[in-house]
Design a protein that fits this description.
13 helices; 39% helix; Nucleotidyltransferase, domain 5; flat; five-stranded mixed sheet; single chain; 353 residues; alpha+beta
């Protein structure tokens, strides 16, 4: 099949359209990009299902916006958990909808189906079954050929690093569902540690903290807004008024939340991340340690946008720390960059299943 597609690509005829698409099936966000066009879709990985009518009613932003506001018969489904597919059918439906609404080639060519090559990522910690699930989901969306690459490699490439260099680099990615700490070099993952929680888990911790401290129940989206608007490691004090449900009376309640409270609630989690980074570094041979000391550490993922996170990590690790450019899009941008590499190098990165 691969050889047949390679032959088709060489045919320079206008009646044989060929496209390459890149897909990041993220826990919080799904991103889709097209070769030579860049990212064309960035939507929450959510869908709302009506159990009475047995049909999906909202997808993406619309589904996320109604979290906590629906009757019992409307179920909010998050098909990706900790970076892997947990609800296969829902993920197929979600991805098909995203592709049909954002990728013109799915509707443009009515009489001749284009050749579509899809490239996606999976966490390094994913099992073979979880890797196969990603390929199966992509195959269900009418693509001609699918490839998957380990996320840490794509992320490193998206940070502007030469992953094929023999000089290793330390990457810390704090995404929506996973925190991956990886040492990348010679086109491989040399060492890695993974925590199966990240940005989404931070929202739950904030909710629990405010529940105990202020006797207030807050929704998931409200806690996420607090995290985005208030959390910083610069010790800058910001405040925001939020409304929730009083634990004492059951009635609406408004409270003023400060940055220091959000920071205090999440500090144990960030200390846990720091401990894991130290554990990974301590397990490395002297030659790799020397390279890390010279180059420092790169932080990427959605949480890399937290103000002062680079200074926090630098102080705790006693290393130079850099924030990746466009950290939220490192993985999908990395896929685009890797696809431009020599075919032999690119094929060496692919996961065979």
């Amino acid at each position: 099949m691969i050889n047949f597609i390679e032959k088709i690509k060489k045919i320079k005829a206008p009646f044989f359209p060929y496209f390459k698409i890149f897909i990041d099936l993220g826990t919080s966000l799904t991103k889709i990009a097209i070769e030579n066009k860049g990212i064309i879709l960035r939507q929450p990985t959510y869908l709302a299902y009506d159990t009475k009518k047995e049909q999906t009613i909202f997808i993406g932003d619309e589904a996320k916006n109604i979290v906590g506001k629906t009757p019992e018969f409307i179920k909010i489904i998050r098909p990706i958990v900790a970076g892997v597919i947990s609800d296969f059918d829902s993920e197929v439906l979600l991805l098909k909808n995203f592709l049909q609404n954002s990728v013109e080639l799915y509707t443009k060519y009515k009489f001749l189906k284009p050749i579509i090559e899809a490239i996606s990522i999976v966490p390094t910690s994913a099992t073979e079954i979880e890797q196969k699930a990603v390929k199966e989901v992509l195959n269900k969306t009418d693509v001609s050929q699918t490839y998957i690459i380990e996320k840490a490699l794509a992320t490193a490439a998206g940070c502007g690093l030469n992953i094929f260099s023999s000089n290793p680099n330390l990457i810390i990615e704090i995404g929506g569902g996973l925190t991956e700490i990886s040492i990348i070099g010679s086109g491989n993952i040399i060492r890695q540690k993974t925590l199966k929680f990240a940005g989404d888990h931070f929202n739950k911790i904030i909710a629990n903290y405010l529940y105990l401290k202020h006797a207030i129940i807050l929704g998931e989206n409200t806690c996420e807004e607090l995290k985005i608007n208030l959390l910083n490691f610069n010790k800058a004090e910001k405040t925001e008024i939020v409304r929730g449900k009083s634990l004492e009376t059951g009635l609406p309640k408004s409270i003023r939340i400060k940055s220091s409270e959000i920071r205090e609630s999440l500090l144990p989690i960030f200390n846990q991340i720091i401990d894991l980074i130290k554990e990974l570094i301590e397990s490395c041979p002297p030659e790799i340690l020397d390279e890390i000391l010279k180059k420092g550490v790169i932080v990427t993922g959605g949480s890399a946008k937290i103000e002062g996170i680079d200074y926090f990590f630098a102080k705790e690790l006693n290393l130079e720390v850099f924030i990746a450019p466009n950290p939220q899009d490192s993985a999908i941008n990395g896929l685009i960059e890797l696809s431009k590499k020599d075919k032999k190098l690119f094929k060496n990165l692919l996961i065979s299943i």
